[in-house]
Specification:
373 residues, alpha/beta, Rossmann fold, 2 domains, six-stranded parallel sheet, 14 helices, 13% strand, elongated
């Protein structure tokens, strides 16, 4: 039984890949239909269940679902959401192997929260059979709470690299089509921001940095794709600056067309647990400027694969964008290394790593249980 937070596109891709290779059934349960944004989900082609609204109702539904279906294993997304925590506790009480994946890589600076975590987490983590951290930063986070290396396997959190590349190969004019649609000159240098329009994603830092960029790079264009609470501020900026193109939230193949239209991607987040925008850009072959606060730093964001800048530093961001825009040879060098690296980070490989964890979890004795075969 696979418990996920919401039906984000990459998670649907992963669930499909797991169903393609796992010999048994996989029940997929979403805790929320649209937590961060409205996701497109065709229930007819993707069997799933969504928990009812309300924490108590959701936890009751989890208990009932586990009792009625009697799954052989639970795979849970993190533990901070009440339904996730409930699934771990119920699974442990029922003597089931429990696998937990996570993209969390750092704690909160609050002293009292840190004290509570240092006491509670080691007890909670004993209920988990195996952890599946997204990458090295997440694994280090677990080690900080005493989780041994033999109890966790990094699974290379990613997107469907293969499908993205197949689409772009089938539509070689994808970038030109996108530029024409939004009135962007083919020879213009284009920076792309794609994501939720919220402060955490650093869009305000980008807006502060942008006038410095355009004052030094003639004809520079910025495409902002996404939706969120800052949409009106973006609209105001675009209304007075013709170099800013607000294109709204994109879906389906339009996402890959936007990446293909960009000379490079700017990801200025002030904090991001992982940063799938980096995976996507690398899969498309678009060079990346990203802040050092991403959870994929060290795994994907490296000196040879991306231009990494400090978070919450608009001046440094402006300098980096300007330098990137004026140095296409540097962009090509980074793309070559990034494309080679992301080729190993496929959804198929991630599914294979998770399936291997499941097989080992069945053989691992848990508290109060005997080994499974």
């Amino acid at each position: 039984m696979l418990f996920r937070i919401e039906p984000a596109g990459y998670m649907l891709d992963l669930a499909r890949a797991l169903r393609a290779i796992w010999p048994g059934e996989i029940d997929v349960v979403f805790m929320n239909r649209a937590l961060t944004q409205k996701w497109e989900l065709d229930a007819r082609s993707f069997p799933h269940e969504v928990l009812p609204k309300g924490r108590l109702n959701a936890m009751r539904a989890i208990h009932r679902r586990i009792r009625e279906t009697r799954p052989d294993l639970l795979h849970v997304a993190g533990w901070s959401a009440p339904p996730s925590l409930a699934a771990i506790l119920i699974g442990d009480a029922c003597g089931l192997p429990v696998v937990v994946d996570l993209d969390t890589w750092r704690g909160t600076p609050s002293c009292w929260r840190g004290a509570v975590k240092s006491i509670a987490y080691p007890h909670l983590f004993k209920m988990v059979t195996h952890f599946a951290p997204g990458g090295n930063r997440q694994a280090a986070y677990l080690r900080g709470f005493g989780v041994p290396d033999n109890k966790m396997t990094a699974v290379q959190m990613t997107v469907d690299v293969t499908s993205i590349r197949q689409f772009l190969a089938s539509e070689p004019t994808a970038g030109a089509t996108f530029r024409e649609r939004f009135g962007i000159a083919r020879d213009a240098t284009v920076a792309l921001f794609i994501g939720r329009l919220v402060s955490l994603k650093g869009i305000e830092d980008l807006l502060v940095a942008w006038p410095r960029v355009t004052s030094q790079v003639r004809g520079m264009q910025l495409v902002i794709a996404g939706d969120g609470e800052l949409r009106d501020r973006i609209a105001s900026a675009a209304a007075v600056d013709p170099s800013i193109h607000q294109v709204g939230r994109l879906s389906g193949d339009d996402v890959w067309r936007a990446y293909a239209a960009a000379d490079f991607v700017v990801a200025p987040s002030r904090f991001d647990n992982w940063g799938l925008v980096v995976n996507e850009a690398m899969a498309v072959g678009a060079p990346v400027i990203a802040t050092d606060i991403f959870g994929c730093a060290g795994d994907l964001l490296r000196d040879d694969t991306a231009l990494v800048v400090p978070a919450c530093a608009p001046d440094r961001l402006a300098e980096s964008i300007t330098r990137f825009a004026l140095d296409p040879s540097a962009r090509r060098r980074l793309v070559a290394a990034a494309s080679e690296l992301i080729s190993e980070w496929t959804i198929e490989n991630q599914a294979g790593k998770i399936a291997d964890i499941w097989r080992r979890a069945f053989a691992a004795p848990g508290p109060g249980t005997s080994p499974r075969t």
